[in-house]
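Hey L., structure's done. Input below.
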Amino acid sequence: MIKLVVTGLWVCAVTLVAVYFSVQMATAPAASPEPKPPEEEFVKGESINVPIIGDTGVTGYFITKISYMMDKAKAKDEATPLPALTTDALFTLLVGDKMIDMSKPKAFNLEAFRGEIKKNMNEHLGGDYVKSVVIEQLDYLSKDEVRASESAPAKRNIKTVPLVPPEAAPTAAEQTPAKTH
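Output:
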């Protein structure tokens, strides 16, 4: 009989302690949430071919595919077509400014190229829309290789000069900013 009374008192004590702590936790002030960094959205680019014009005419083509990480809220509001702005930025850098000299492909500065594209896009959009530039493809194809492939059989193998190694597009986990504690 004593064991039954002691067991009953033990159950009552444990229940009272559990209720006390649950009430304390429920009435405790909520921890202030950390300010969320602005969410970014991956905007996939299109394949763009840029002809390179030399003294004798077209000397080759740059084959590019550039995507962006943009501020999610601003990207939804923007009505300007990104492919048109990307094409303009690429023509400016590759044809107008001649940022890449194919006689010295090793001298190509990838970070400066990304920075110029980002700066150009943000100037056209009128704000800080583009957070980073993802270069998925940047290859050079000479005019001679294009002509040789036209006269080749149906299964032709065109050799491009890759200027940068292809970058993988962000996965769904990388597109959502990670929470830091």
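The longest strand covers residues 57-71. The longest helix spans residues 2-27.

-- N.
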